[in-house]
Amino acid sequence: MGSHQTTTVTTNEKFEFTAGIRKALHIMMGVGIVGLLLVYIFNPENGHARFWSNILLNTYYFTGISLFGLFIVAAAQLAYGGWHTLIKRVLISMGAFSMIGGFLLLFTLITGLLGWHNLYDHVKHILHDHHNEKYTNKHIFFNPPFWVARVLIYAIAWAALSYAFDKFFGEKNQIDPKVYKQSKLLSALFIVVFAVTESFVSWDMVMSLDPHWYSTLFGWYNFASYGCAGWAMSILLVIFLKSRGYLQAVNENHIHDLGKFLFGFSIFWTYLWFSQFMLQWYGNIPEDTNFWVKRFNTGYFKFTIFLSLIINFLFPLLFLIKRSAKRNFKMIGFGAALLFFGHYIDFFNYTAFEPVVREATHDSHHGGGHSSVSQRFTLLAEVHGEHNAPAEKAPTSDVPSHADVHLQNTAAPAHAPKHESHGSHSHATAHFATIGLGELMIFAGFLGLFLYFCFSRLSKRNLIVENDPYLEECKRLTVTWA
Asked: pLDDT digits over 145-187, tens only?
């Protein structure tokens, strides 16, 4: 560190969490609560699955963004990076939401296992089918105590590390060689924990929504997606603080660096998206391709998948590749906001389709009820044009075969015909979330909650990390190329 050890920071720049900002965030959170109520009241299908899917989607998305803020600090610290020093407090404050994010995910999982909703209703089939080879390796992984324990460990680890980053980089003298060495140990610990838990939580909370589909790239894919959102959020926060008169030392060179990372991660995300899609399609393995087939058979999700590609790949390729776009605060702010929402759409495509209600059954003798598994699949066969299929081909147990799972996971059209049998009648429907008013309100509510935690942490300490050995170097940062 040499000459940097004599650097002294005299700035006392501190963010004021004003009543006006608090009021705006409270309004956003209130809008989110109203959105949850609207979705819960007007979409009761499938155990209010749309309500719970929105909670899972937003909790997972904003928790990933929160953790990525800490990841940037940890990675830069280990690489002896100094470019981020002026915004280090902003990145650490992004990590504040992870103090509760993991516990919200745990709540979603536990309520599902208790039967409050059926996002993870497939577990009962997996645990009770000891003869189906497809489930052989999943009995242990989806065992409820082990499943809950894993998510609990994630939640505790994230909260502890988020708190440690805030205390360590906020109170320790970073110029002290001993402290600087400790910061690298803390960063290394976070990278290891993050690498493991980030992949596992993507399997536990998102990929497990459809236990018949799997992707060996899914952990990396999630990292790239909320990584893009994390860079976008950091840009938006810096621009907001600059507009309020804070971070006076931050200039177009610093925002340019953030823009380069956002562009780079966008291309990285596209590479993983294409790899996941192309390899699964080319391999033609049913457990792989089922995910894409059932979404491409549903017009709405086919549209949102390509919309996600346009926003998250074509836009940064044509817009963020320009040097001028990355150095102009208004232009990079617009790009960051668009990509922030674009990756929300990306995660929406993974969570909102599952589970899908295909039909409702009304029994004329008992006043209503749910159809049996065999009735559901017989009905679905008719919906998809297999009207002449013999009844004995329908599954007779409560555990569907692989072919039936594929049929079950293919959304039926809204105009599906009725199916009547022995005093009862069933009509096929397809219920899944769309990005409607309720979804947008819930998204705004979670954004308000995320920002409330972020600004609360940001207001407790100086905006600039004091006594950082790379502070002066960061102030002199100049980006010459790209």
From this structure: 999 999 999 999 999 999 999 998 887 777 788 888 898 999 9
Whether residue 262 is found in the same domain as residue 221: yes
DSSP letters along 152-176, please? HHHHHHHHHHHHHHHHHHHHS-TTS
d(CA 232, CA 262): 7
| Secondary structure (3-state) at 74 | helix
Helix axes of 177-205 and 45-78: crossing angle, nearest 10 degrees:
160
**Residue pLDDT, tens place only, 183-207:** 899 999 999 999 999 999 999 999 9
- CA nearest neighbour of 73 among 99, 102, 101, 96: 96
Helices then strands (H, E): number in the chain? Answer: 18, 3
Rounded CA separation 436/456 (Å): 30
Residue 63 structural domain: 2-356+433-475
Distance (Å, rounded) from C-alpha 27 to C-alpha 441? 11
**Do residues 113 and 202 both lie within one domain?**
yes
H-type alpha helices, 175-251: 177-205, 218-243
Peptide bond into 355 cis (omega under 30): yes
Percent of the chain with pLDDT over 70: 79
Tell me: the pLDDT tens digits for 209-240? 987 788 888 999 999 999 999 999 999 999 99
DSSP H stretches of helix in 114-143: 123-128
Instruction: Report how far residue 53's alpha carbon sits from residue 60's, in angstroms, rounded to the nearest whole number.
Output: 10
Are residues 401 and 277 part of one domain?
Answer: no
Mean pLDDT score, 240-251: 93
Task: Say how many C-beta atoms besides its own lie within 10 A of residue 41's C-beta.
Answer: 11
Same domain, 160 and 28: yes
* Residue 395 confidence (pLDDT) above 80: no
Count structural domains, the chain: 2
Q: Is residue 86 within 8 Å of 250, Cβ to Cβ?
A: yes
Exposed / middle / buried, residue 380 (Cβ in 10 Å: 0-12, 13-18, 19+): buried
pTM of the model: 0.83
